[in-house]
């Protein structure tokens, strides 16, 4: 696993048959797999899967990239550069942030510019993002806004139900670990994950969600079939499926919390093998009942 490299997005899952909804819910069963009688470990992504603190981050990253690209003297219009940056930013969403900055440096070089180190662009982006979300973080810190208002709906209910089942919970994010820990504390999510919170580190090649999964399975000596994972990004879905786990894609509508699945996320998650797709966690009772008790034959 030391040579593991996060791949760019590619639709890899075979075309599944017609999906179906669990009766009376928006829980979409994409692939009729038989869950084990009991999962032992559950992995969650962070931003967009649980936390909404950073909702709207592309509106910070893409304009910054357009600004950097314009400095090369390219004759492309702002609109053309915006489309370019938006496309590759979204294509790489799910990987660590540094990969998007590596791509920015490559695009600058293509246009005859002299790019900075990707880590410098990452810091620039992060500084701008922190300015955008400063009021959200402060509102959580002071208690003006309850954590429930800044998580994917139903998240706390699901986490409580999993903890009641004595399931070990893990959090893995492509966001820098220090900020994942801080924002998890602001949301009160650290109470559920304890020391099992993992994020990107300076040596980005030394961290991946796949490595977190490998550690979970090896340390606990359990097969991948006993791993359940939730994520709104393609990387964690691929990683969970690669070890034989069951993957729940969270096609969250981050901006509106509407309860409807985000169509772009849904297609992307299905394309890399998500077994189930949900818009949020409001129907977690029905989901957990299906996973632990019903299964395809009794659904």
Summary?
The protein is α/β, with parallel strands linked by helices and 299 residues long. The chain contains eleven helices and eight strands. Helix 1 (58-70) packs across helix 2 and helix 3 (97-110) runs antiparallel to helix 4 (118-142).
Give me the secondary-structure topology.
Blueprint: E1 20-21, E2 28-29, E3 41-44, H1 58-70, H2 78-91, H3 97-110, H4 118-142, H5 155-164, E4 168-176, H6 177-187, H7 190-193, E5 197-200, H8 209-220, E6 227-231, H9 234-242, E7 246-250, H10 263-271, E8 276-278, H11 284-298
Parallel strand pairs: 3-4, 3-6, 4-5, 6-7, 7-8
Antiparallel strand pairs: 1-2, 2-8
Helix pairs in contact: 1-2, 3-4
* CATH homologous superfamily heading of the largest domain: HAD superfamily/HAD-like
**Strand order, sheet with most strands:** 1-2-8-7-6-3-4-5
Specify the biggest β-sheet.
8 strands, mixed
The number of E-state strands comes to 8
Distance between the termini: 37 Å
Describe the protein in words.
By secondary structure, the protein is an alpha/beta fold. It has 2 domains: 20-52 and 151-298, Rossmann fold (3-Layer(aba) Sandwich), CATH 3.40.50.1000; 58-142, no CATH class. The protein has 11 helices and 8 strands. The chain has helices spanning 58-70, 78-91, 97-110, 118-142, 155-164, 177-187, 190-193, 209-220, 234-242, 263-271, 284-298, and strands at residues 20-21, 28-29, 41-44, 168-176, 197-200, 227-231, 246-250, 276-278. An 8-stranded mixed sheet has the order 1-2-8-7-6-3-4-5, sandwiched between helices. The chain starts with 19 loop residues before the first strand and ends with a helix. Mean pLDDT is 90; it is low at 295-299.
């Amino acid at each position: 696993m030391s040579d593991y490299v996060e791949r760019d997005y590619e639709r890899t899952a075979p075309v599944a048959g017609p999906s179906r909804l669990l009766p009376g819910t928006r829980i979409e069963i994409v692939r009729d797999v038989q869950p084990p009688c009991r999962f032992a470990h559950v992995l969650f992504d962070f931003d967009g899967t649980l936390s909404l603190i950073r909702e709207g981050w592309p509106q910070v990253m893409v304009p910054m990239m357009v600004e950097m690209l314009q400095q090369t003297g390219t004759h492309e219009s702002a609109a053309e550069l915006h489309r370019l940056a938006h496309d590759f930013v979204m294509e790489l969403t799910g990987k660590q942030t540094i990969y998007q900055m590596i791509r920015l440096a490559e695009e600058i070089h293509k246009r005859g510019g002299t790019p900075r180190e990707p880590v410098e662009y990452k810091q620039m982006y992060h500084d701008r993002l922190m300015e955008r979300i400063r009021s959200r973080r402060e509102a959580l810190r002071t208690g003006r806004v309850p954590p429930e208002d800044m998580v994917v709906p139903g998240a706390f209910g699901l986490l409580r139900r999993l903890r009641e089942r004595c399931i070990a919970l893990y959090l893995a994010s492509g966001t820098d670990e220090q900020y994942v820990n801080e924002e998890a504390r602001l949301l009160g999510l650290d109470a559920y994950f304890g020391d099992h919170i993992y994020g990107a580190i300076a040596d980005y090649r030394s961290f991946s969600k796949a490595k977190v999964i490998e550690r979970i399975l090896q340390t606990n000596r359990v097969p991948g079939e006993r791993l359940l994972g939730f994520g709104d990004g393609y990387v964690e879905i691929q990683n969970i499926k690669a070890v034989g786990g069951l993957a729940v894609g969270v096609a969250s509508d981050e901006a509106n919390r509407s309860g409807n699945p985000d169509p772009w996320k849904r297609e992307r998650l299905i394309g890399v093998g998500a077994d189930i797709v949900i818009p949020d966690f409001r129907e977690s009772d029905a989901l957990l009942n299906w996973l632990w008790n019903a299964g395809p034959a009794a659904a």
